[in-house]
Fold this protein.
Amino acid sequence: MTTALISNGGEGVLREHEAYFRFYEELNDFLPPDKLKRSFPYRFNGNPSIKDAIEAIGVPHPEVEMILVNGASVGFEYHLRNYDRVSVYPVFETIDVSPLLKIREKPLRRNAFVLDVHLGKLARMLRMLGFDALYRNDYKDREIIDLAVKEQRVVLTRDRRLLRVKVITHGYWVRSTDPETQAREALRRFDLSSQIKPFHRCMVCNGEIIAIEKSAVLNQLEPLTVRYYDEFYRCVDCNKIYWRGSHYQRMIDRIDRLKANS
Ligand SMILES: [Zn+2]
């Protein structure tokens, strides 16, 4: 451990400090190879907040669930000090650490999402599973940020820079580019498997689906559909009609596959 003295253009000296960081589990996805799964020195001047230091290293703050400095839990507002030993953890899947958490008032347990323009297929899949997933293929970053703040939505994004926006408190950088793998990531990260409710949300527009009388939609159905099905549902927003046809069994199979692998 050394404290180097560096010149400050003749106006005296600035003291450069050093802290030691270690990132755990999937937070390593954001680090260069020389910082993976090991403690490494981080040099700094002045007294930056630990949140700024973590983001300077490359990890977006919404991915972080717990920070220990010299063994004690701290919040994002903690200011880094010389020789601090910092451990940074993502959301824990199996251990309840809530008594230790200093980062957020409370974890966001509202499972409502807003997705960036790269994640249309994931949005449809989340809706298929019954989750509230807002998405448009022309969302501007500003709109996503506003929806996250005003409606307390979790931001799902392929753009890790978006997660650095200060007002976004809950978000997740989707690692995979494959929609099914992405859905499994989301199920795991937000512990959603037990809350899956197929056939509750419109895959097209995210509206809720409600049961309706067959007689109310007779004139909108093909003759074979009228003959073989009696239960119908309608999206309250876009009026799309749903019934449990052959596509329904394929959907259920797909959901079973997702659950089994998450
Ligand atoms: Zn709809």
Notes: The helical segments are 50-57, 120-128, 141-150, 179-189, 223-228, 246-260.
